[in-house]
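Technical annex, item 7. During the second reporting period the consortium partners agreed on a shared format for inverse folding records so that results from different sites could be compared directly. Each record opens with the tokenized structure and is followed by the designed sequence. A conforming record, contributed by the partner at site C, is shown below for reference.
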């Protein structure tokens, strides 16, 4: 029995139609997932921007750098240990703590710079806690050393805070660059 070559045309059409449907469905699903991931990354970036902008506003309003510089000068001038302590009772890093595992979905270099800024912030908060512990008698004042050393430490804290604010501003700018409003 001979088979005519034209009789396979409907079969070919059906196979091509099925393959085309699968490819189209796969492509649509992939595009939808990519769109969802991009939307999630954008929302996450904007959330970090909001938290970081709020932190800048708090630091600007409270002007800790100025007070640390005054404490440095007072230690050096009076040659007696003087402490300026910042008691941080609120958690200002809710967004970061809740989403640290997700920062990898952001475009480069955002994951690295966001992690760096929050790590610097954590280090400063530890330092604030140490100063508060001294002020409230939970840690020896010897931790500061001489008045001149204490002055250097307070100047260093003020400079570290200046650097943190600059890094936060740069991070917010970088977020805007990759995820414009």
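Designed sequence (site C submission):
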């Amino acid at each position: 029995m001979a088979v005519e070559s034209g009789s396979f045309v409907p079969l070919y059409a059906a196979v091509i139609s099925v393959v085309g449907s699968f490819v189209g469905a796969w492509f649509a699903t992939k595009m939808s997932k990519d769109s969802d991931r991009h939307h999630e990354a954008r929302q996450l970036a904007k959330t970090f921007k909001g938290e970081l902008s709020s932190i800048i506003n708090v630091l600007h309003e409270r002007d800790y750098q100025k007070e640390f510089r005054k404490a440095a000068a007072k230690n050096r001038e009076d040659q007696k240990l003087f402490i300026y302590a910042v008691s941080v009772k609120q958690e200002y890093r809710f967004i970061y703590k809740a989403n640290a595992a997700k920062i990898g979905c952001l475009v480069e270099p955002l994951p690295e710079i966001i992690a760096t800024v929050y790590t610097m912030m954590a280090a400063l908060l530890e330092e604030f806690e140490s100063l508060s512990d001294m002020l409230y008698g939970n840690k020896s004042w010897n931790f500061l050393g001489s008045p001149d050393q204490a002055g250097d430490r307070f100047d260093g804290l003020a400079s570290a805070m200046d650097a943190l604010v600059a890094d936060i501003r740069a991070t917010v700018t970088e977020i805007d660059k990759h995820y414009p409003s």
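Helices lie at 9-62, 64-78, 94-99, 110-135, 147-178. The chain has five helices and no strands. All partners now use this format for quarterly exchanges.
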